[in-house]
Structures are given as C-alpha cells and as structure tokens.
Amino acid sequence: MQSARLAPAHVALAALVAAVWGVNFVVIEIGLGHFPPLLFSALRFLVAALPAVFLVGRPKVAWKWIVGVGLVLGVAKFGLLFTGMDLGAPAGLSSLVLQVQAVFTALFAFTVLGERPRRIQALGMAVALAGIGVAAADEGGSGPLTAFALVIAAAACWGVSNVLTRKAAPPDALNFMVWVSTVPVLPLLALSLLLEGPERDLAALRGLDWTGAGVIVYVAWITTVFGFGAWGWLLRRHPASSVAPFSLLVPVFGMSSAALFLGEPVTPLRWCAAALLVGGVALTSLAPGRVPGRNPVARAEPATLSLPLPAGEERPA
After folding, report:
1. Is the dihedral of CA 198, 70, 131, 113 positive or negative?
2. Which of 65, 117, 184, 246 is the most core-located residue (most Cβ within 10 A)?
3. 208, 31 contact by CB (below 8 A)
C-alpha cells in the first residue's frame, strides 16, 4: 500500500537522488574533457548495462518498447545533450533547460495519447517556455546558441521517450533502464567512429586515467543504476505526486554545483530563467491532466521521472 507521507529517510533518499542527477551535469562536463561526446555516451550505457543486465532478470516489457526508448533516449537525447555541452552549453544551464522536457512530454502526450492538458498545465507550459526564452537571451550574450538549441532538442527527445515509456508501462524501473541501456551502445559507437573518427576515439581510450574512469562509473552506476533504482523504489511505495516534486531540485543542484566546482556564473537573467522554468515545469508536470472521456487523473510525467516512469513511473516523465 502506498503512503502519501514520506518518512524522513525517504525524504533524504529522494533529495539524494535529485542531488546525484544535478551534480551529474558537472561530471559530464569533466568527462567531455576526456572523451568525445558520442563515445562518452556509448561508454556510459555500456557500463550501465554491464554487468547489471545479468542481475536484473529478463525484460518485463516487449522488446519494441526497450528498443524504441533506447534509440530515442539513449542515442538521440544523450547524443544531443553531450554534443551540445561539448560545443559549449554550460553544465548548470543545461541542467535547467533540460527540464523543459516536461512541457514536451505534455505536448506529445496530448498529440499521441489524447491527454488534454488543463488550463493550469497550459499556463505552466507558457511560463516554462518564457523561461527558455529568457535563458536563450542570456546564453546569446555569452555562449553558442547552437549548443543551446541542441540541449533543447535533447529535451524534446526526452519528452518522446517519456511517452513511449508510459505506453510501455514497465513494472520495474531498474530492470527497464538497464535493458534500455543495452540498445544505444552500438549505434553510438558507430556514430562516434563516423563523426568523431577512430583516431580520436582510440586516443581517448588510450589516455584513460582514474578521473576518466571515475566519470564513467558515476554517470553509469551512480546516476543510472542507483538513481533510477532508488527513484523507482520510492515510487513503488509512495504516490508519484509525493515523489515527483523532488525532481524539481535537479536544476538547483545542477546550477549550484556548476557554480561551485566549475566557476560558472549565475547571472540575474539566469536566475529569472530558473524561476520561470522551475515554476512552469511544476505547474505542467504536477497538476493533474485530463484524458478525454475520463476523470481528470492523467498527469504529465514529472521532470525527472522520465524514464520508467518511475521516471515516469506510476504509473515519472
């Protein structure tokens, strides 16, 4: 039986997961100094899948959903995100802008699943998009807009993967995420060889040091295996409405850790963008939605629920 009230230990665990996911953007920034972005993403999924795939049991959903989410989330979303950050998108800003995936999820859910947003959700989308506009204005004066656009495209792909995940309705978030992680490895390696070149890839692998290895372990085992495993565990014990708000802490930890460890400035415009985006995402992902012909119980996945629903589970986003 689910309990709406989180015990102090569960609150601490939810906050820890948000911190792990937020700091992940700083770790990615460090990793991009050691690996080309597509190779880095491939290694992330390879290490996340092995040896975990031998420990989580057989897939609990149809292969079409695992392959679909693996390609959209693993290849497209992470490929675009890592490339955008490699081209200059700041870690803190990326952690913030990526949360607009909740808006894309709601839009795609309306288009594909017929989940009509309520007025409060439509308002949230408008507020979040205004935050994107402010962030773009801020980034336009200090960084490459192409990189910024790639991060937004990554958020859109995350939204598509959330809708696919909701259709799949995986009963076990960790099992689903581990099997999804097996899909992007070969496509990303192929793209890396084609676009980044075998010489650059080999040089990165030959130059692997303890920092590079630590980065891979963090983004694979800590962020993916621990993060989604713990998130799914919480969602099995508490309603999504009690757990999902903690995902809004991700950009807080992301921007704070980027400022602390990377020295990224947090300008007044960026604070304004953060307030608009977080507020808009909260309205979009936490307000109950409406499915035509049913009671208003459907909801757009929360910002970081994204995957298995958990990250999006429910069933997050």
Report:
1. positive
2. 184
3. no
